[in-house]
From TrEMBL:
Residues spanning the membrane: none
Organism phylogeny: Bacteria, Bacillati, Bacillota, Bacilli, Bacillales
Top-level taxon of origin: Bacteria
InterPro entries documented for this protein: Cu_amine_oxidase-like_N, Mao_N_sf
Gene3D superfamilies: Copper amine oxidase-like, N-terminal domain
Domain (Copper amine oxidase-like N-terminal): residue spans on this chain: 44-140
Alphabetized SUPFAM superfamilies for the sequence: Copper amine oxidase, domain N
Stated name of the protein: Copper amine oxidase-like N-terminal domain-containing protein
Amino acid sequence: MNLGLFIDGNEVALDLPSCDEAMKNRVLVLVEENYLHTVTGIGVEPFIENGRTMIPLRALADAFGFDVEWEQSEAKITLTKDSRIIIMHIGSQDMLVDGDSVSLEGVSPMIRNNVTFLPVRQLAETLGIKVGWDSESRTATFTQE
């Protein structure tokens, strides 16, 4: 189904999936009992990549309170929260957490539809955030411990 939507004053055409397709592929993200809101059909909705939940960088930063720096020349993402510094590169499964190397285990930050997506589980666990997954509802849950 095609539908028009206005974002920042510009009309964006949405090609919405069928209900069955949407239910099969959707991923819900719940952070501290609040759902992460994204607009379906414009390429910024969470998805599963190699068994890992990927969410947009901006949504992740807002949800977890990160400050974000982007260095285009190095495809480098720096996330800062309190005294924690996490450095990642697009396409690399390795990240630095306070200077220590940590593997992202099978998935790496990526750009999809001009949006940067990050694997959220290990980032959350690095910050001491409890992570849960409900396969029936396809919901990733994140809560402070």
